[in-house]
Specification:
The complex is a heterodimer of chains A (about 300) and B (about 525). Chain A is of the alpha/beta class. Chain A contains eleven helices and 13 strands. Chain B contains 23 helices and no strands. The chains are: A alpha/beta (about 300), B mainly alpha (about 525).
Amino acid sequence: MTEAIRVDALVKTFGRTRALDGLDLSVRTGEVHGFLGPNGAGKSTTIRVLLGLLHADSGEARLLGRDPWKDATELHRRLAYVPGDVTLWPSLSGGEVIDLLGRLRGGLDPARRKELLERFDLDPTKKGRTYSKGNRQKVALVAALASDVELIVLDEPTSGLDPLMEEVFREVIREEQRRGDRTVLLSSHILAEVEALCDRVTIIRDGRAVETGTLQSLRHLTRTSIQAELAGPVDGLGELVGVHDLQAHNGTVRFSVDNAELDAVLRRLTAVGVRGLTSTPPTLEELFLRHYDRAAADGAKPRSGAVR
Amino acid sequence: MTGTGALARLALRLDRVRLTVWVLGLALMPMGTAANYQKLYPTEADLQAVSGVLSNPSLVALSGPLFGASIGGLTVWKIGVSELILIGLMSVLTVVRHTRTEEETGRLEMLRATVIGRYAPLSAALAVTVAADLAIGLLGALGLVAVGLDPAGAFAFGLATALFGVLFAAIAAATAQLTRGARAATGIAGAVLGGTYLLRAVGDTGPTALSWLSPSGWALHMRPFAGERWWIALLFVGFAVLFAAVGYVLVDRRDVGAGLLAERPGPAQAAPALRSPLGLAWRLHRGLLLAWVVALAAAGAVMGGAAVGIGNLSSPNQQLTDVLSRMGGRSGLTDAFLGAIYGLIGQLAAAYTIQATLRLRQEESSGRVEALLATRVGRLRWAASHLVFAVLGTAVLLAAAGIAGGLVYGAQVHDTGGQTARLLGAAMVQLPAALVLAGLGIALIGFAPRLSTLTWAALIVSVLLVELGALFGINQYLLDVTPFAHVPKLPGSAFTATPVVWLTVVALALGAAGLAGLRRRDMPAT
């Protein structure tokens, strides 16, 4: 498995602020990789280093096997980028910007451009200064997605899109995924989007990667919510290892359970007799909240070595 | 109107350094000039001698008529026009900055959602600007009184200056409602300002009615120190109220963020030419360049026309030659006049050079450069695309000023070809000095991007040193720091290649260093 992006112990400081503090990131060729983190975690800084816009203080970054700072222009032929905050030239129309960026990248597919304009419902004749935030984002998205490149870097690309357009965006990214030869780095703080699209995820906080792996492997770290209607009372459920937040009411129990202990806990329930059972799989939400919650993260929460 | 006070305080907070510098600079300029004339022409006879020659048509075109043979009259003559242009510029920039710029950036939208009335932003901008104008007028008048000039004349000059500023604040209040872009709003008001100068220049040398159509004409015809005509103040007030009213009416008729001129749709596809950084730069620079070419060609033509007058002087006078040589020329009255004019035009052109150079920084700080540099466009290629306009654009507009001046002047002396070539040379020789400022701009962008606007300060200091340095008897070493002090005074004196080569070398060295810095640093800079 080759790597499209490899970052080791990257450090970038701005004056006294340490924006990246030993970040590690590995994106495999052909995958859609989610890059999750709260505002100010260092997502955009990482992307700018990968684009050769910022010079890292230490650590190593490789993009498509080359040095993003030294080989910037050669690398940029092979990638397309959508900035987090898209600003356009006020006097240029959206269509002009799409064509310009496409040409500067080495050409874009006119049929694909037309198709994307229709799907994103974007009027290319409006001037840059008259577009809303979402429409400016669509301009950059169409320009990036209509280019024939190996790597697409998207920095919070849907933050201004309405739900309908977000769905269009997901469809388009899924199509890219099916092609199998395009790598997508998708920075986001929208979990549903990452869950829906990404093969693997890296979660970053305070300039460091705190979790990385497939969604499946990350889910093992979290808990499943269980609601069960039982035939009789069950004793000692709360004392079982891995059971949390137990509530019992009229023969119905609700709790969450560490996935590693799921089997043992279910056996205990079936021993009593189960009449009804609802289990909700762990969402990234919980995972996310765990790492967003600074108090919790700064506490003695064990960090799994297996996925790092 | 609700919230006007709060917004005015915000504007003062944002502009506290900028406005202080403007107010103090403009208030001190007349006082310094008067003090120096007192040293230069201590006796009545000196004054009479110099005044006799200053009513020459060419000098009248440049600085306006001299109404009184007194220190006060001379001061108003020497500094009046510059003072008016600068206070007009300050007023336009300040009003637009606090109205249209705030609106264009979207900051006003945030403010307007608070308890702020529809008219508050415009009222606050006008209040702050008018206060600054009045402060300049008052302090300037007190300064003149302090050096011992007649208080009536001093206050007439202060009033004329302040009211000129107020009028242009009102004009900017109207133009800021017309366009969506702050740049265009400033451009329209600035064009009106330049137009009033040229209208007065033509009017004062011939059809007097024209100079009465121009506010710069009114200000000078208020005759400070020469039988003040106070009623002219009413002209200013009347028109200021009129333009401000237009501004308020337009505020009422339009949406926040919108201009009065509707936005037309653009092409759905880019033209084939828009395929390179240079193609993009052409789109971004062409409007500004065209406006500058028209402005400098007009200035060249008007001054080329006025230059004929100086040759009509029956006996070339030693005093006039002295005055002219202080203004920059060396020999031959007409040539000295034209040399001085093209020196001024060179400094004006440098303003365009700086605008075009600093566009690099604007593209960066607006975030637009990020998407561009993520394509296969390298930083140097991107920088070069804008610098082509800074360099060649400046050359084009200098050429326009030279050719226009040469054609008008040449037609009157029946030597169109010869004069056009001579004046083209006089204009083009300014290019290396302007490019030194471009070099300084690039160096700042490369190494200290947040300080890049200091390039403007360098130009302003350079202009003041060159224009007033000789009068104030400033040390030659200090004068030598400014690029324009080294430009050969063409036509007239002989062309010497050495300073031109040195200026070019300095410009190239600064530019190369700046580009090297630009390649190495973070983009966008923090």
